[in-house]
Design a protein that fits this description.
With 135 residues, this protein is mainly alpha-helical. It contains seven helices and two strands, in the order H-H-H-H-E-E-H-H-H. The protein is 58% helix and 7% strand. Strand 1 and strand 2 form a beta hairpin.
Length: 135
């Protein structure tokens, strides 16, 4: 499925990413998939930010429509859906790590582990590889 800026305000690459991912809820769902290993609807609902069910359903649908997330029926629990990042979604990892690192530098209340910042500075590519292997 091709996802492009045809219906967006402009064809600017920054606008494309903002319209694809730009609200906080969408980025938090991607965060949970990339860094927290969440796969089920209920796991996303349990996040600290208290996303509402209608917003979560909308963002998961948007991510699926944009080819960032895929969904499949859990073979062990036929009534449950497993969400996972597509290859396109996994390519967001470097950007998400950069945002995490940036926050660790400028938010003195950030819950980023200081070891992450040191590892990011020392071995960014190794860190990316390790997260990709986990997802």
């Amino acid at each position: 499925m091709q996802h492009n800026s045809q219906s967006y305000r402009s064809h600017c690459p920054i606008n494309f990413i903002l319209e694809s991912l730009g609200d906080k809820w969408t980025l938090l769902v991607v965060r949970d998939l990339l860094f927290k290993g969440k796969r089920y609807y209920g796991e996303f609902l349990a996040s600290d930010e208290n996303i509402s069910t209608n917003i979560l359903a909308n963002r998961l649908e948007k991510l699926e429509t944009n080819g960032i997330v895929s969904r499949r029926i859990d073979p062990e629990h036929k009534s449950k859906i497993i969400y996972s990042l597509t290859e396109k979604g996994k390519k967001l990892l470097p950007m998400m790590l950069e945002m995490t690192y940036w926050s660790s530098q400028y938010d003195n209340c950030s819950n980023v582990d200081p070891a992450f910042a040191k590892e990011f500075e020392r071995n960014r590519e190794g860190l990316i590889k390790r997260f990709l292997e986990m997802s």
